[in-house]
Amino acid sequence: MDSKLETHEPNLAALAPDAPLAALLPALLAAWRARRTPEIGDLAEAVTTALLLESPRPTLGASRKAAERQAWREVEAARDPLDFPRLVAAARGGTQDEVKAQVVALLAWDHPGMARGLLAILESPPYAGIKSRPLIEVILEGLRATRDSRCVGPARALAKRYLTIVNSSTGGFILDQLEGIADFIAGLPSPELAPSEQAFVEAVLARLPPEARPAPPPAEPEGPSIDALFALVYASPDDDAPRLVLADALLLRGDERGELINLQLAEKQGPLDAAARARLAELSTPGRLAAWALPLSKAGQCSFERGFPHAITLYSKGASTTFGDVAWTTIRKIAEIEKLSKKATVELLDHPTLAGVREISALSAAALAALDSRPRAWTGLTLLAEAGADLRLAQRCPSLERLAVRFSGASERAPETMLEGLPRLVELDLRYYGNDSAGRVRIPPTVRRMSSHGPVADGVFQGATQLRALTFWTPEVRRGQLVGLEHLEELDVRAGRFEPDALAPLEGLRSLKVGLERERRIVPALLAPLSKLRRLDLTYLRCERRHVEHLAELEELRGWWTNVGDIPALPRLATFHAMLPVEVDDIAALLERVPSLRSVAFCFNSESSLWFTSSRAAKAWERLRDIVAGSTLTSFSVDEGVELTRDDGGEWSRLSLRHARLDGYVNLDLYRHLVAHFPVRAVVDTPDSMRATIEAMIAKPARTALPR
Assuming Cys at both sites, which of 90, 200, 216, 412 could form a disulfide with 60, CB separation 3.0 to 4.6 Å? Predict the structure, then answer.
């Protein structure tokens, strides 16, 4: 075969369809270069395949080995059209510069298999970091230059799922470029064959073995198109039925998103079994979700419910390119909307596709005021406001159930009546930054849970008759501030100082988390009125026996900062968390004095065992094992995030490392001790980075057992 690539356009109708295939191939390649007719391109590749079936050629290596790259260059220099398939398959091998040079060399062939080959490289790119942009651009520019209409569909399909391949800014760039290239080529004139040329093509194809002929396009399943089914979902985003129909259609086409839709809909009905949970986790990788969320994943990071984007955390850039897209109709929550300009925020939220949104954070008061006047159906809102802003919440957001306002500015006072006219409001979060006069907003009676960070005036809770849970971080806590909270059940309070009788109005309190910012000690009078308290978290606050001995109903005591021996024999205490290191014998004495305990958390004194491999370590662990074995405990923790629990048979077999670390010998030694002295068989709630190490200890206890 002549190794020269023909450039003149032959008359296909003048060719004999029964001529030797080797003689037809140069003419077909020349016709392709001149006209870009899909049928000619398919025939040229089919003839190439038939000739290679008769006389196969060895594949070329695609690694970085110098010998393989030299072999590639030698084969390419021969310019034999039958070598093109193996050259393009191996063009991905080598350094970035070598791959780039190989792609450039093959582009000069102007071969009908070039577009398919470039898409194959992009399908599994050898380089996809930010520094690979020059190589990626050469591939994409080459794809555009092919003007091959056969690549339009594959390019669009690849773009739709490209973030599952490269989930990064580079992947987003390739995605956009593929869509643009597909649009460009689709807009080019469509060349057609004359009837005599079509007859020639069909006659040559009939000669070829079946395995060499172009594969027929896949048959489209009967029924509505996928686009039509997506449109039905967007038309009724709250209805599950269209999603189920779409899921079935996607599964018929082998699209895994159908599985995602079915699994998430099933999860909404009740817990999934282990296999289904594992499959759902496999389908919910960031890359897959980003691809399925397009075009919204250009605007932000999406989370899915019922198979579609349900919530989005916006990026600083990219959102405006998606405004008005019908995909927004499934979004119910928008976070970090403050990243958009006021103009862009208004454009987004005023669009009809956002009618279904129910929660927004954090919206500026200026943007809220600039929206059109129709009431919004929002149920949750985080608002950024100057203290004196005219918010008109009752007119703009009458359906609010959860509201957070972040006040700034020290010159103006927030209106005391700001929250009036919100009949559904049940959760409220007010925070004041640099403002000393805003904390006078009256709390409506509908609010059940509230957070307040900043100064609060006396009497603001007077009408909050339904308030049951309050997080209250303020410079000072006075009795007058808490008047009206006689029915409060949960309080998380941090302050610079407390008046001695500050908590007196809270006689019905059940749960208290209390902390001081400047000092660590409180007076006994502060907790004296709280005789009904069941849960107490001291949060680095130094308390003594006299502070808590009257709490007869206390069931949970956390953050104890003084001597464990100071704990009184509270009759209902079931959970105890010590903050300071303790000796093993202290644990034994505590369990004997408080027999109701079922869960304890502590760390050993540094001289006894856990943090240092002293000579006392093994004996301390043996002593702990004996104490725990003879107790009625159901769980104990020896370090933050390291908890051992009993199984249904009473054995200490389950180890949880939810917040544990594996950052050095000290922690590793702790886990070895646990596995060596207790019958650990299962590891739960454990970071993936640690699971293999801990499971290896459990599988081979002899290698981790400590001397006794």
Answer: 90
CA distance 154 to 115: 10
- How large is the C-alpha radius of gyration of the chain? 35
Find the helix or strand (DSSP H, E) in which 144 lies: helix 133-146
Within the chain, what is the greatest distance between any pair of CA atoms? Answer: 109
Burial (Cβ within 10 Å: 0-12, 13-18, ≥19) of residue 59: exposed
39-45 LR contacts (CB < 8 Å, sep 24+): 39/193, 39/198, 39/201, 40/12, 40/112, 40/193, 40/201, 41/112, 41/148, 41/150, 42/112, 42/150, 42/214, 43/201, 43/204, 43/205, 44/112, 45/112, 45/113, 45/214
pTM for the full predicted model: 0.77
DSSP SS3 for 291: helix
Q: Alpha-carbon distance 351 to 344, whole Å?
A: 11
CB 642 within 8 A of CB 670: yes
Cα separation, 419 vs 401, in Å, equals: 12
Torsion, Cα of 610, 612, 613, 616 (10° steps): -70
* Minimum mean pLDDT range among 54-68, 328-342, 645-659: 645-659
Would you say 69 and 93 are in contact if contact means Cβ atoms under 8 Å apart? yes
Residue type, 9: E
Neighbour tally for 688: CB within 10 Å: 6
Place of tokens 């081979």: 700
DSSP state letter for 397: -
Strand ranges in 628-681 using DSSP code E only, listed in sequence order: 635-639, 642-645, 654-656
Would the CA dihedral through 309, 310, 316, 319 be positive or negative?
positive
Angle, CA 442 vertex, CA 441 and CA 446 arms, to 5°: 125
Cβ(41)–Cβ(112) below 8 Å: yes
Give pLDDT tens digits for 227-255.
Answer: 999 999 999 999 999 999 999 999 998 89
Interatomic CA distance for residues 619 and 294, integer angstroms: 60
Q: Do residues 112 and 45 touch, judged by C-beta distance below 8 A?
A: yes
